[in-house]
Amino acid sequence: MTHKLHQTLHLLSGKKIFGGFFLIFGFVCLAYGFWWFSHQKTPLLSPITQNSSFQFLSNTDDITAHPKRVVYGFLPYWNLNKFSLQPETTHLSYFSLEIGSDGSVLTRTNDEVEQGYLKLSSDQVLSFFTQQKNQQGRVDVTFTQFDNDGIVTFLSSPAAHQKFLRSVDAVLDAYPVDGLNIDIEYSGKVTPQLRSNLVVFMTTLRQHLNQKKTPPQVSIDMYASGATKFYLWDVAEIQKQVDYVVVMAYDFHRKSSPAAGPVAPLFGGKKLWDSDITQYLKDFVAVMPAQKILLGIPFYGYEWQTVSTDSQAATFPESGSTATLSRVEELLANKTQNDVREFWNEDALSPYLSYKKNKETRIIYYENSRSISYKLDLVNQLNLGGIAIWSLGYEGDSRDLWDVIQRKI
Question: What is the pLDDT of residues 306-321, one digit of tens each?
Answer without folding.
Answer: 999 999 999 999 999 9
